[in-house]
Write a structure and sequence with these properties.
Blueprint: H1 4-17, H2 25-68, H3 72-75, H4 80-87, H5 89-130, H6 137-170, H7 172-177, H8 181-207, H9 209-233, H10 239-280, E1 301-310, E2 316-326, E3 330-335, H11 341-346, E4 356-361, E5 364-365, H12 371-376, E6 378-381, H13 392-396, H14 405-415, H15 440-453, E7 458-462, H16 470-483, E8 488-492, E9 504-509, E10 512-517, H17 519-524, H18 529-536, E11 539-542, E12 548-550, E13 560-561, E14 568-569
Parallel strand pairs: 3-8, 3-9, 6-7, 7-8
Antiparallel strand pairs: 1-2, 1-4, 4-5, 9-10, 11-12, 13-14
């Protein structure tokens, strides 16, 4: 690029002299220079794209690894769409900034080359022409700051909009059932308007720079013409030199404008980088100890010792919660929604850590164990049971990938999961996004099978059978009654009928234990919380199998009908 003005000067001088060599020298030079420029542009483009893509890929890998090991509370602070935008929208902004920054290397080289050329052609004219460009420094800085702020707002609005759209599509059924289409349209429309305004604000800030640079470039050329005209009248430089200088000045204006607007692009990318690095710099609170203790088996007991847990909004989920669970026992937590049952269970695999107090396994604080070893002992089935978008078989053996098809089949048959045989592809049936091709009860069955396949020492069931029909629940209850012998089972259920053979029940209210004991003892305390809950569910007695029975009618012989097994007892 810097050689073009020299070729132009030579061509004009040869033309003025009517030199016949212009017929072949100048065309050959132009072809050679154009070919070299094309090759350099091709190589530069490939190199810059590879550099920017490799950098973005490396950043995305680091962010992904960081997020996979972050505390659950950090992940739950944003909706899934918010995290997705870190890998898409903000990654694109960073990539654009990197591309512009790497392109700037070529622009700098071009400007330096053309500047040297202009100084060599006419140093006085070069100083006059370029004297105005330093005036752009201050407005470039101011525009850069505004672009960074507007880029942050645009990225924030984009993340919010993606989250709201994702929520709307995932809740398509309740939207239609409750006639919310128009309200959703208005709310989402407002969000789209805010997103449009955020984009326009950034475009408006970026647009302020180009007119200023255009004016300065034009004034510089005008001054150069005026100065050259004055010198020409005084018997100055030749026409070829002047033409070459003006060509160099025009050629330099594009890369100089690009360099001046570079700051805006860098600030836009910096806004995305600040979001990414703020996540990566978030400290991980739940970590392995420096010298982990091996978990001894049998571990004798699992103990909550005056445990308190506080949510990020300041509410207390647990307050001075204490519970002792002997190895091999069946313990249940009951209470109204929001009582803290699920919060207590989440402390066992260290999804969260208590703010105060300790959770002990075999007398050792859970924090003294390696997290992976601790979680390998636990089979956890929570209230929500989304599956991965893969086959039934792969979903069931997700934590035991080496398990054979025969092992999975034997387990599912023992559990009574007959619905799998009804699918044409059987265990190879794809369950769809989050398992939505299955019913809620079927998803719960798959989640329970997944937890049991790893042969956990501690089985945690948090409303794990709430979506099952009575027949399926009865089958699973019968299976679990035998399966959990010798295993520690902790269960949460609002249906007290499934907790009658628990060794111990802890009744919770607002994060505290208000009553505890065996089912028989709790039922005898008619003024207690448990007895009142049982009464509301029509539960009156406990059968010898351990299941709480529901009185559904009195027969002539005054016997009571068993709720689940439909047998009679006096």
């Amino acid at each position: 690029m810097a050689a073009y003005p020299l070729v132009i000067r030579k061509a004009v001088d040869m033309f003025a002299r009517k030199d016949p060599r212009i017929l072949y020298q100048i065309p050959i030079l132009v072809v050679i220079l154009t070919g070299l420029k094309a090759l350099c542009q091709y190589g530069q483009t490939l190199m810059l794209h590879r550099l920017s893509l490799d950098t973005i890929q490396s950043l995305q890998h680091k962010l992904l690894k960081s997020l996979l090991y972050k505390d659950l509370s950090t992940i739950e602070a944003l909706p899934p769409a918010g995290w997705t935008s870190r890998f898409t929208t903000e990654a694109m902004a960073i990539r654009e900034a990197l591309t512009r920054a790497t392109n700037a290397v070529g622009d700098v080289a071009t400007v330096i080359g053309l500047g040297i050329c202009m100084i060599w052609l006419d140093w006085e004219l070069a100083i006059v022409a370029l004297i105005l460009y330093p005036l752009t420094v201050l407005p470039v800085r101011n525009v850069g700051k505004k672009v960074k702020n507007s880029a942050r707002e645009m990225q924030s609005q984009t993340a919010k909009m993606v989250a709201r759209l994702t929520e709307n599509f995932s809740l398509a059924r309740p939207v239609r059932l409750h006639g919310m289409e128009e309200k959703q349209y208005q709310d989402l429309g407002d969000g789209l308007n805010k997103l449009r305004n955020a984009h326009f604000a950034m475009a408006r800030n970026k647009a302020k720079l180009d007119p200023l640079l255009e004016v300065i470039a034009g004034v510089s050329v005008a001054i150069a013409f005026a100065f050259a005209g004055w010198r020409s009248a005084m018997g100055g430089a030749s026409l070829g030199e002047f033409t070459a200088f003006i060509a160099a000045l025009f050629a330099a204006s594009r890369p100089m404008r690009s360099l001046a607007s570079l700051n805006a692009a860098l600030q836009e990318g910096a806004a995305g980088l600040s979001h990414v690095f703020s996540v990566m710099d978030t400290p991980i609170l739940i970590q392995d100890p420096k010298d982990p203790v091996a978990i001894s088996r049998p571990f004798s007991s699992l103990v909550f010792e005056d445990v308190s847990y506080q949510y990020s909004d300041g509410r207390w989920g647990l307050q001075n919660f204490s519970l002792k669970i002997k190895e091999g026992s069946f313990v249940a937590l009951v209470g109204e929604s929001g009582a803290g049952k699920s919060t207590a269970l989440s402390l066992i695999p260290r999804l969260h850590d208590p703010a105060m107090g300790r959770v002990l396994l075999g007398g050792e604080d859970l924090k003294s164990f390696a997290i992976k070893e601790l979680r390998s002992l636990i089979g956890y089935v929570g209230q929500e049971t989304p599956l991965f978008e893969m086959s039934l078989l792969d979903n069931i053996r997700i934590s035991e990938p080496e398990a054979s098809l025969e092992e999975v089949q034997n387990l599912c048959e023992a559990m009574g999961l007959d619905f799998i045989k009804q699918f044409p592809d059987g265990y190879q049936t794809l369950v769809g996004y989050q398992g939505r091709s299955l019913s809620g009860g079927q998803r719960q069955c798959v989640a329970i099978a997944r937890a049991l396949l790893r042969q956990p020492a501690i089985l945690i069931l948090d409303e794990a059978m709430s979506a099952l029909d009575a027949n399926s629940e009865a089958k699973l209850e019968n299976f679990l009654r035998e399966y959990r012998k010798g295993k520690t089972t902790i269960m949460v259920s609002h249906r007290l009928s499934s907790l009658g053979n628990a060794n111990f029940i802890s009744v919770m209210h607002e994060g505290c234990v208000v009553q505890e004991g065996s089912p028989e003892m709790l039922l005898k305390d008619e003024e207690g919380v448990y007895a009142k809950m049982a009464s509301k569910q029509g539960l009156k007695a406990i059968h010898q199998t351990g299941l709480v029975q529901k009185e559904i009618g009195v027969l002539p012989n005054s016997s009571t009908v068993c709720f689940l097994c439909q047998t009679h007892f006096h």
